[in-house]
Amino acid sequence: MDEAPVEDILKVDPSIEKDQRERLKALREKRDNLKVSDCRERLKKAAQGKDNLLPHILEAVRAYTTLEEISNTLREVFGEKKKKIVL
Question: Whole-angstrom Cα distance, residue 40 to residue 1?
Fold first, then answer.
């Protein structure tokens, strides 16, 4: 089953990536990183128990915790599911 190569792959302008990295760096410098750390710790404890995670996630977002940081916190508790590909 040969498939034709994909020709219309989205290519992001490198200047957009550079701009986003700079914005992320600036965000991390100006936010309250102690509050972010505290929010992540509370989220982790909630994930280890039976608490509703949504209020903890919203609190983390309001403290400017990034999606990657929230996701990594949850991965620490739940791991990462890897789908087995059968050829």
Answer: 46
Global pTM? 0.77
46-56 pLDDT, tens per residue? Answer: 999 999 999 99
Measured CA to CA, the distance from residue 69 to residue 11 in angstroms comes to 25
> Which residues span the domain enclosing 64?
17-78
- Confidence band, pLDDT 50/70/90 cuts, at residue 86: confident
Q: 65 lies in a domain?
A: yes
Three-state secondary-structure class, residue 82: coil
Return d(Cα 66, Cα 27) in angstroms, integer.
Answer: 9
